[in-house]
Amino acid sequence: MIDLSDWKLTLPTGKPGKPIELQGMALARYADTHYFSDEQGLHFIAPCDGVTTSGSKYPRCELRELNEKGGLASWSTGKGSHLAGWRVCVTHLPISKPEVVVGQIHDSEDDVFTILHSANVVKVMHDSKCYGTLITNYRQGDEYEIKVMVENNHINIYLNGALKCAFPKKAKGCYFKIGCYVQSNPSRGAKAGEYAEVILKALSLNHQ
Known about the structure:
Elements: E1 7-15, E2 18-23, H1 24-28, E3 36-37, E4 42-47, E5 60-65, E6 81-92, E7 99-106, E8 111-118, E9 121-126, E10 129-135, E11 144-151, E12 154-159, E13 162-168, E14 175-182, E15 195-207
Antiparallel strand pairs: 1-2, 1-5, 3-4, 4-15, 5-14, 6-11, 6-15, 7-8, 7-14, 8-9, 9-10, 11-12, 12-13
């Protein structure tokens, strides 16, 4: 029920530094209960010892935004308006380091911000700086809706329709990423079998 034509999926499996990625019809036909399925929505699982992308130390089962031609999306915070909305719940976190990113904007060099679950707290983060707290007492499995609006070099982040976080930001080469980006690995104490699990219930994207 969720349109994935504007997204590609990065999986926590494949070769080190070169994880498997799927888009288009390959993604539409794909299901694997170890990582990604359409159970209860879109079901993402990222094991802490999974394959990572080049330059990243943590595994991900995550959607990356594409443009209308199927290439990699790349937009500026200062030109046009950019809106993504998604409804999500977190159903499992690693024991050793209970953290997972459920959404972010990335630019041509690094993340602009991440929406980070840390145990039962959900925050908007960048380089260890908290831009705002969205939820202070999250109960595992509860659903919530995030909306991110970018316009005129400014970012507004809404939780269940209420503005919770706003800050100025100039960035180019931007794109949305949504899913399950676990923030733990064996070097951070993760034991075999530890993982993060996220279920995406709704997803929308609009650029003008």
